[in-house]
């Protein structure tokens, strides 16, 4: 089995209300000078065939209309 990670983020120009909420909250907690906060998700999975990952992302793991994804395949 191969361990893979898929990092999923909103595409540039797509509204990210979670990221905006975190960006507004950080200064109130004492963390100044924070900009461009984006919230995404990480999916980790073990697969037999890493060649299937692209198809998995396109069909289920990510919404290609509004999200970009990056596949990282481990050793």
What does this structure look like?
There is one protein chain. The chain has 75 residues and is an alpha+beta fold. 28% of the residues lie in helices and 31% in strands. The chain has helices at residues 17-28, 53-61; strands at residues 2-10, 41-47, 67-73. A three-stranded antiparallel sheet has the order 2-1-3, covered by helices on one side. It is elongated. The relative contact order is 0.37. The mean pLDDT is 94.
Number of helices: 2
Question: What is the alpha-carbon Rg in Å?
Answer: 15 Å
The arrangement of helices and strands along the chain is EHEHE
Uncertain parts = none
Question: What is the typical, i.e. mean, pLDDT?
Answer: 94
Tell me the structural class. alpha+beta
Distance from N terminus to C terminus (CA atoms, Å) equals 10 Å
The level of helicity is: 25-40%
**Regarding quaternary structure, how should these chains be classified?**
single chain
In percent, how much strand structure appears in the residues? 25-35%
> Strand order, biggest sheet?
2-1-3
Total strand count, please? 3
Envelope shape: elongated
Major beta-sheet overview: 3 strands, antiparallel
């Amino acid at each position: 089995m191969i361990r893979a990670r898929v990092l999923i983020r909103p595409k540039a120009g797509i509204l990210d209300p979670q990221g905006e909420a975190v960006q507004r909250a950080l200064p109130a907690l004492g963390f100044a000078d924070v900009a461009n906060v984006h919230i995404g998700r990480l999916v980790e999975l073990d697969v037999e065939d890493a060649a299937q990952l692209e198809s998995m992302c396109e069909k289920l793991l990510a919404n290609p209309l509004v999200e970009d994804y990056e596949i990282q395949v481990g050793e």
